[in-house]
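Sample A.
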Amino acid sequence: MITNKKYEDDIKGKNYLKTIFENKCIHKLLQKKIKTYPLGYYFVNQYISRRTYNENPLKEGIATDISSKIKKKMVLIRKMALCLQKAIIPTKGNKRNTDILFITRNRFIRLKDEFGTEYKSDYLFGPLIKELDSKRSYQMDIITNEFQDVPRTDIISPRSLIEYSSLKILLVSFIHANINYIKWSIIKKCIVQKFGTNEKKAQMLTARFFSYTNLLYIQIYDRSLQRALQTTKPRLIIANDDIMQFKPKKGTKMIVVQSASMLSQNEKYRKLNIDKFGLEDRIPSCFLVSGYKYKKIKQYFVDPSVIKVTGQTRYDVLYNTYKTYDKKKFINRNHIKQNEKIILWTTQSHALSMEENKSNLRAVICAVKDLPNTKLLIKQHPAEKKIHKKLIETGIEKFEVNALIMDNSSDIYEQLFCCDILITKNSTTAMEAIALNKPVIILNLSGQTDSVDYVKEGVALGVYNADELKPKIEYLLVNDNVFTEQRESYIDKYLYKFDGKSTERIIQIIDQMLT
């Protein structure tokens, strides 16, 4: 049975957040500004992040078993050791007036341009950086938000945010984290009494956020961000919307670029930063979205005047796939037979429960293991962990499936171009496959409604019971043009013109802002 659990959680979530923000003690604590943003900004963002990745935001976040506690402690120790190391060793160079500062996540991959030339860069901004580097003379820097080392890349050498930390930042962060934790400890008992037994979930939300580890992380992050801005002095910030959606400083010129699908409820939650924490003067100069459907969704958060529809630069290469990729070379390189149909499964294990991951694996393996002349390619999400890969490897070995796990850094667009069917849950790879006229199956065995409307829009087949998967694969292998009519209107709504010129449009906006 399919239940609209996401909608029910939204109603509960709004009620719990309302309860929290109406409490004067908590609200006063969350309004406390660090250097860049108030604590409440991080509270809202963490709530949205957990919701986006299907991690129940209302679930207790404290590890109870000993092994989980040890793992969490080890992760914290490693991060703090890295912080200390970077703080002791001063950041060399990079103290300059930067024209454009890109702020993104630590996800650098091999990309191809329209001529098939390979280069390594940011998964979202790579094509834009390459075009700017070749056609403009802007000074550019790129910073990742994660507290870990970054790889070497072409064009611009990225830096981790933690490289902008210092001994002073660490010391001040420890002091303020302790102050906030003590304040929280003092008001916690009073809050528990006011919330009452019916508001246990609201208590969990606050307890999770006000854990000492989280408070310390936020302090270091916020202060390191401020120092990074003081060091690079950017004329323009271009941010991945997964990382930052508000100006770090009033008066800064800032562009926020859509990186993935967008959920209307998340945009409503995001508006709490304005309504509850007074960040209306931090709204970016403009938001760049990939289609008019997303512009409509974004209006739950900001005025439509600051939203521009440009398409997405990383999809420009999809427009030229027949120039860029060669299926014959791909199948030879991966030892795939000429007569084998390629079924590509893009997993999202990091965002699903282990129970759902096992159900998905079982369903896919059972569906394809007896299909003649087929090859299963499995492309894991970059955020998946070793435990997820081990689960897949065990399943393949146990059932002796004709399958291949693709390297994490391999080119997903090449795989989409060469595949005959794509299977996924709600990944943007479905949107990319649709743009390439590939049949798509949405595998959703969670018992909940789809979070992205691929099936509702008529551009994919939905599978909500494991037994339905094999016959639907067989059907699409024969009827691969079944979604042709709906694809055109879908692309108009979600991918703008899909003409290979999104990068050009964004560069025009950048030029205008830097003139």
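Sample B, a different protein:
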Amino acid sequence: YILVGHAFGADNVRAFADRYMPEVAGLMLVEGDVDDFEPLDMQQDDHRGNAGYLVQLRACRDAVAQGKPLPMQPSRPGRPPRTCAQQFFRGLPESAWSPELNAKLLQIAQAKVALYDAYISEMEEMPWDEAYLKQHRRSFGSRPIVVISTGNHGVGSIATPRAPTLQHLRYEYEVALAQSRWLRLSSNAKQIFATNSSEYVTFDEPDTVVDAIRYVRDAVLSRR
């Protein structure tokens, strides 16, 4: 398999690779989460943020289960208010999708308790996921690895950029640096910078993702 993971999905594919390395042909990490490689203070900030977000998710889940109106999410400076159902992906409706798809996703997010249960369960397990990955950093040998970084980790859209702060600039630098540490896992690894993209590279620079997958595929075929 050529494994492709985006955001938290990077943890999933790395864990799969550790457990089933003989089945893995190559790896691609698209603006992947790097909590287990970040400086300690950033890890602690992420954990505090996740704990606060879990409180919101549980409130959303309970409202859906009880058929109550969905609570509003905390306000974001310069951005419109949104309900629980609008928090998924980079916000619903998503301009890249059809009205029909957006309507169906909103319907699911407004009514399906299992969606929230799965999301809550995933987030509750994150500290243990990170601990597992810290203890299992297995070499990929010469299997190809491509890391796509944007410098916009946690940024859902670059259409309306925020005013930079030293704290945010440091955060983006440390994330890109941590992502570069994945290159140590293979003797055949490279990092690509998609600087005109938000963290949703598949939306903003889909050709970059497709080209990288083809690169990994060709590298796999050349090893045979």
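Observation for Sample B: Residues 73 and 87 are 8 Å apart (CA to CA).
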